[in-house]
Amino acid sequence: MRQSRLWWAALVICVLLLLAVLVLDVMHRLYHTQGVFEPAGHHWFDSDADRSMSELIGYLQSLTSSVLLLYFAVAVGKGWTFLVLGQAMLVVVLDDYMRLHEELRGTFIDLLGLQGRFGLRSEDIGELMAWAFIGLPIFVAFVLAWKYSRPEIRKKTKPLLIAVGALIFFAAVIDMFAILAWQVGIEPGAFGWQGRVYYALTMVESLGELASQSAILLIAIYLVLQLARKNREAESEE
What is the pLDDT of residue 27? Predict the structure, then answer.
């Protein structure tokens, strides 16, 4: 019962944080468009900005998820898929905080002399290459981990895969869509409908990322609590 209360408490906290980010982000936009809610004018409340409140909450959630998944991987015995996903969440934190893919993007542009093509800027192509450079090793490691994991481990991994897939969708796919939308004037600082559409895209991206990170954290907490309950039941039977 206590473990159930812990999980529900974590769920409530995650939902409240998500709502707080949404409300403060809207207040931040209203300050810059209507001049109201002055305390929310700081860039910290802009979910699209680096080191924003939304990103910092995401860092904390992803780091906690990483620790819990790595612990679960070891505690359950040969939980290879959880070992890879736990490391992947650590990479998410390092990438966001240290701006790894942005640095790699510049490196690829300089080394390969990338030029814009297919409607993409050189920065966009460099970013795609950076994501591939970071993501492909993790993908290969996960495929191998899946192959050599026990059936029960694979079953427990599936809900986590859905949440991780959602995180990738919001972090990469929606982000790239927002970049492509620049060609029709949907960009930062735009006025009229283009500005509103850009704001909506950034909100979907930021809130989607945070919701996905929350889901990953909640799944990780559930797995650890479930394992603790089984271990306690096994000890009581002895």
Answer: 86
Closest listed residue to residue 12, CA positions, set 223, 226, 214, 224: 214
Q: What is the residue whose two structure tokens read 């860039």?
A: 43
Higher pLDDT, 37 or 149: 149
**Residue closest to 81 by CA, chosen among 25, 22, 146:** 146
Torsion, Cα 131 133 136 138, to 10 degrees, reads -90
Reduced 3-state DSSP string for the chain:
CHHHHHHHHHHHHHHHHHHHHHHHHHHHHHHHHHCCCHHHHCHHHCCCCCCCHHHHHHHHHHHHHHHHHHHHHHHHCCCHHHHHHHHHHHHHHHHHHHCHHHHHHHHHHHHHCCCCECCECHHHHHHHHHHHHHHHHHHHHHHHHHHCCCHHHHHHHHHHHHHHHHHHHHHHHHHHHHHHHHHHCCCCCCCHHHHHHHHHHHHHHHHHHHHHHHHHHHHHHHHHHHHHHHHHHHHHHC
Amino acid letter, 30: L
pTM: 0.88
Percent of the chain whose pLDDT exceeds 90 = 42
**Residue pLDDT, tens place only, 156-180:** 999 999 999 999 898 878 877 766 6
